[in-house]
Amino acid sequence: MKTTRLGIIILTLLLISACNLPKETEYQSYFINQPETKSERADSSKIKKIEIWTPEDIVTNTLKYFSYQHDDIEFEVTVVDRLNLVDTYYEALLTNTEPDLMIVSAQDIGAFSGLDKFETLNQQPYYDHQFFRSRPNALLDNYLNDQDEMYGFPIHTHPYVTLYRADILAEYGFPTDPEKLGDYLADLDNWLEIVTRLGDDGLYAYESLQVMLEWGLNSSYPFDQNYQYIYQEEPFANLLEGLTIIDAMELDIYQSVWQESGYNNLKADRLVMFQAPSYMVDTLYNWLPEQAGKWRITKPPFEMNGIAKNTSLIAMIPENATNKNVVWSLVKALANDLYHGLSTVQQHPLLDQTDLNQFYLSLLEEPSIGKPSMLDKTAEVLWENNVYRVNQGYQLNETFFQQTHNQVIEQVRNNRRVLREN
């Protein structure tokens, strides 16, 4: 019965992914560009073997000390191509050739949320009260299935933040205290006020319409826990409204911090506010150490709290895994190592603020927009078409986005029924 259900779900998702792909291939979102890493293989003379699959090798550094505690085990890390990861994992699950530990990005985790092929981590023998309570419930709840069983554990998390030049915002009379500015940016009209007033003087409070849309898609999920489509509702609807207003005012500036245009504006003190994952604080400091002490961070605008799905990673233990107690110990070690930076950092040389760990934890304590589901790929394909069209200069208006809403709702109608009946 489990194999039949898994086959039905996988077939449904493969059909979804095959539909509505853009014919053009010139454009590719920078969000999916990731550095390639090589597989690491442990000493082949060891007796037992634990196999780990991951889209990014965040495992080897932890294994440098963890493996000493398990001299009788060989740990083999394989980096799986991100673009084929879901298909690769599905095939392994169907053929019972899965590894002992599967790591997947938060962007793809929804594809596994309805499968009954993984260990339930919030039950014995896995549940560890002290370990679980050290993480915000809102973060852990993302990886509960319909029966409130935890099928995956977050081990690498990057919350989105708003980076801003406090010194420049102060010159214009805007709030500069992180908490006050965060509350101010929750209102669409206030965000537009900052954008337009700074824009009058050739300063920029965002990167581009394309990057703003990609941020929204990368920090949220299109369906709630009941599989209801929510991109037509606030807060995502506020983001779309803001994009249409900026486009109508012809204020799009077509820049990205990862391109020369955005970098040059950062260096020239012209790009003074934008959204990015928390690791961007380190990147910005490496680029522009001379701006140390001029930046601060606060919540994303429109109450669009969320993690960077493309770089945040989730660990799953297949039910056929061997040495499960060791695998779970490794998951906890990975989670502690990678969570340490968020939970303990007090300050950063780029930022003019302290208690950063409390700020990061407060972000993670806020529920994300939507919840991972088996239907995510349906919306993802259609919305990536929109990202491409924005890149090509299509006019943004209510009709532009409503067409995508309608397409998503129509395509998920039958898929939602399949998921509920199986």
From TrEMBL:
Superkingdom: Bacteria
Keywords of the record: Signal
Stored PANTHER family: ARABINOSE-BINDING PROTEIN-RELATED, DIACETYLCHITOBIOSE BINDING PROTEIN DASA
Signal peptide as annotated in the record: 1-22
TM region(s), chain numbering: none
Protein name: Extracellular solute-binding protein
Gene3D superfamilies listed in its UniProt record: Periplasmic binding protein-like II (3.40.190.10)
SUPFAM superfamilies tied to this protein: Periplasmic binding protein-like II
